[in-house]
Specification:
single chain; alpha/beta; seven-stranded mixed beta sheet; two-stranded parallel sheet; 2 helices; 15% helix; DUF6177
């Protein structure tokens, strides 16, 4: 996964979070090209840092990435956004389905003519009337 189109990468200052790929006046962006994003120490540290410097944390992933429940809970409670890179619409919010675009230093919803966020195809009802959603639950027990 690469830096989003239209984004110019700048040198990161020595006191910046180690996991940051892009830092702007509005956001700290981390690119996670992995199947699962877990609530690890690096994630909680970078969320804390983003809150301290009054920036939104934006986690960019490929479409097949999943979030653990603790990660999902963190994203709900903090100024964060899960940005999914999509071959059809570019980017969308992984939690709301809103199509996103890079604007003034961060990913923000792309609004329609009525001022409402556009919805990514992955979140639209299917044209055949089959609008089923799938919930994948994985559970492991270790002794």
């Amino acid at each position: 996964m690469s830096i989003p189109d239209g984004v110019t990468a700048h040198a990161v200052s020595p006191d910046a979070p180690a996991a940051a790929d892009i830092i702007t006046e509005k956001a700290i962006v981390v690119i996670q090209d992995r199947p699962v994003v877990a609530a690890t120490t690096w994630l909680t540290d970078i969320i804390r840092t983003a809150v301290e410097v009054e920036r939104e944390l934006q986690i960019v992933t490929p479409p097949g990435t999943r979030l653990t429940l603790p990660t999902r809970t963190l994203l709900d409670r903090m100024p964060t956004r899960w940005v999914v890179r999509d071959v059809h619409c570019g980017y969308y919010d992984g939690l709301t389905g809103a199509v996103l675009h890079w604007h003034e230093g961060h990913f923000t919803p792309l609004l329609d003519n009525n001022g409402k966020p556009q919805l990514a195809d992955a979140y639209r009802p299917q044209p055949d009337g089959n609008s089923h959603r799938q919930l994948l639950l994985a559970d492991s027990v270790y002794e």
